[in-house]
Write a structure and sequence with these properties.
162 residues; mainly beta; Elongation Factor Tu (Ef-tu), domain 3; 6-stranded antiparallel barrel; 2 helices; YaeB-like; transferase; TrmO-like_N; methyltransferase activity
Length: 162
């Protein structure tokens, strides 16, 4: 087993606002936003800091996290931030970019206010989109495209409490 350790430092932070979210990029990383203009979506890697505790990092199996899913499922088969390393990934639409201020306004991101952002990448259909992807039967009724999520009742799909 590899015993290396890594140091990960945030490049920014998520701000939850009333109608949208703002990703604020730290000053020294703002030059990295150059060229992001023109991309409609970005991939945001963020740290699930609220679940960065030994008990959550030790979780490998979840008990029925999805209402129509199996009774138990491995964390690697979920998008939960409760996992050995609480790294989460979100693809989000960009609705505003200010490279000088170091901000990216996004319609929605499934991160909490003050969540640390680890990295930002442009969404590239040539590498992120997969034709004929297959999912288990218990999740096959989920939206197939990001744009269809707005009308989908995601709350009914999960067993966790709000």
């Amino acid at each position: 087993m590899d015993t290396r350790t890594f140091t990960v430092k945030p490049v920014g932070i998520v701000h939850a606002e009333s109608e949208s979210f703002l990703i604020e990029v730290a000053g020294r990383f703002r030059p990295a936003l150059q060229g992001l203009e023109g991309f409609s979506h970005i991939v945001v890697l963020w740290w699930g800091d609220r679940v960065d505790i030994p008990e959550c990092r030790g979780e490998t199996v979840c008990k029925k996290p999805y209402t129509k899913g199996p009774e138990t499922i491995g964390v690697f088969a979920t998008r939960s931030p409760v996992r050995p390393n609480p790294i989460a990934l979100s693809v989000v639409p960009v609705i505003g970019l200010d490279t000088t201020a170091g901000t990216i306004r996004v319609a929605y991101i499934d991160a909490d206010d003050a969540t640390p952002v680890l990295d930002i990448k442009p969404y590239l259909p040539a590498t992120e989109r997969v034709r004929d992807a297959v999912v288990p039967a218990w999740s096959s009724h989920w939206s197939q495209w990001y744009e269809e999520n707005e009308g989908f009742d995601w709350a009914a799909e999960f067993t966790f409490e709000k």
